[in-house]
Amino acid sequence: GLEGISTAADGSVTLGDVITKINDRTVKSGTDIVSAMDKVLPGDTVTVTLWNDDKVRTVTIKADSPRDEQP
Predict the structure, then answer these.
(1) I need a labelling partner for 55 at 20 to 30 A (CA). Which of 13, 14, 26, 38 fits?
(2) Across the beta sheet with 25-26, what order do the strands follow?
(3) C-alpha dihedral sign at 66, 29, 48, 10
(4) What does the alpha-carbon distance between residue 56 and residue 58 come to, in Å, rounded to a whole number?
(5) Are 13 and 44 in contact (CB under 8 A)?
(6) pLDDT tens digit sequence for 30-53
């Protein structure tokens, strides 16, 4: 998941979305997501490319806190 990213409140990432890119990094696995997110600091803006229903879209979201500080 994208713990540390405030997405639920604004609905920019929804159920069924497949993350294909974080910033300029192609994502093919959960490991790729973790690797990309490890470089994100609180307050950083992250560009996420999503695929769902044969459509590609890009959203910009803001990191709110490190993953290990989430409840």
Answers:
(1) 38
(2) 25-26, 18-22, 45-52, 55-62
(3) negative
(4) 7
(5) no
(6) 999 999 988 888 889 899 999 999
